[in-house]
Amino acid sequence: MDPEKPLQEGKLPPEILYRLLAYTSRAPEIVVGAACGEDAAVVKGDRRIVLTSDPVTFTEEKIGAYAVAVNANDIVAMGGRPRYLATTILMPPGTTARRCEEIFAEISGACGKAGMLWVGGHTEVTPAVNRVVVSGHAVGFLSRKPLSTGGARPGDAICMTKWVGLEGTTLIAREKPQEAEQVLGRDSYQRVLDWLETPGISIVEEGRALEGLALTSGHDPTEGGLAMGIHEMCRASGAGALIAHAALPIKNETALLCGHFALDPLGLLSSGVFLFTAPRRVADKALAVLAGKGVSSSRIGEMRDVSEGVMLEREGKKLPLKASQQDEIVKLPR
Questions:
Q1: Along the chain (334 residues), what's the average pLDDT of each consecutive run of 10 residues?
Q2: Per-residue b/e over 119-128, b at no fewer than 16 CB within 10 Å?
Q3: Domain range for residue 191?
Q4: Which of 39, 64, 124, 231 has the fewest Cβ atoms nearer than 10 Å?
Q5: Orientation angle between helical segments 186-194 and 177-184, nearest 10 degrees
Q6: Residue-by-residue DSSP string for 48-75
Q7: Does residue 199 have a cis bond before it (omega within 30 degrees)?
Q8: How far is residue 276 CA from its own chain's centroid?
Q9: Co-location of 167 and 72 in the same domain
Q10: Looking at residue 39, what is its pLDDT?
Q11: How many CB atoms sit inside 10 A of residue 298's CB?
Q12: Euclidean distance between CA atoms 9 and 329, whole angstroms
């Protein structure tokens, strides 16, 4: 079959699906894996499990890698190790077999890096979408007490890995290539594009590095960025927070692009950041462990009593930390 020929609406033809299913995982623990006609996967296991589901709807570029990362990150933020992934892939009419295979290859490669097994799912061409949508459904395992968003306590240090607006910045560069290159210059623009792969938007490495440490809470700040992530953590924990703006790792490239498009870096998509809290001594050890693994990290503030609110200290002034569930990325001109 011509790989450039648009696929027909509905399920994929068996001859194509059989070939694409070679990208899914095979392992002794998979009793029933992805196969034409199978309704579900079956795996062995008797451990405490973590479940999550997350779609990717804001971009098509590298959508397979995004889908794996956002689902794996949710498992890691709960203190677990992501293991299995099932996907629902919806493609608009006009999608070619070649494009479909690109997505399968991206998911397969990203699962390999994350230590996950892709056990199947559902794929179809449908006029219900006008661009590719991938929804992931992930399963992980816990070997410790769940690291919930709501476990932080007043006095805990607030820490984060990598830098503010990591995902959103590279997405801006991809969605607005000409303007972004003008603002940043060719070399910086290319660096920002590379952030998707290096350091990447996965927090699996951080999760593995911090296993065994007595963190009190963990969170994966996505829509609404770091600011929304901190507010969600405070609300779930029944606590306040004081964030030091001077301690926030904001890359110059992020500041320049956000300034150009009138966006707030603190409200920008931040997949790839692991936001966590811990008693001061544990936090210091966590930061040292991460540094030893080559993962950048920062202590950015402290949990406070709920009566103190969620505040941002900047140039000697304390003001409420603004947050919105609507991510700054939606303000980009279409």
A1: 78 80 86 66 72 86 92 90 95 95 96 94 94 94 82 97 96 94 97 93 93 92 92 94 98 98 96 96 97 97 97 95 88 86
A2: bbbebebeee
A3: 149-331
A4: 39
A5: 120
A6: EEEEEEEEE-S--TTHHHHHHHHHHHHH
A7: yes
A8: 15
A9: no
A10: 55
A11: 18
A12: 31
Q: Residue 167 is which amino acid?
A: E
DSSP tally for the chain: helices H, then strands E: 10, 14
CB 100 within 8 A of CB 123: yes
Instruction: State the CATH number of the domain containing residue 194.
Output: 3.90.650.10
Q: What region, left, alpha or beta, does residue 55 occupy, with left being phi > 0 and alpha being psi -120 to 50 degrees?
A: beta
Total domain count, the chain: 2
What is the 3-class SS of 88-137, one letter each residue? EEEECCCCEHHHHHHHHHHHHHHHHHHCCEEEEEEEEECCCCCCCEEEEE
Placement of tokens 């503030």 in the chain? 301
For the whole model, what pTM was predicted? 0.84
134 and 171 co-located in one domain: no
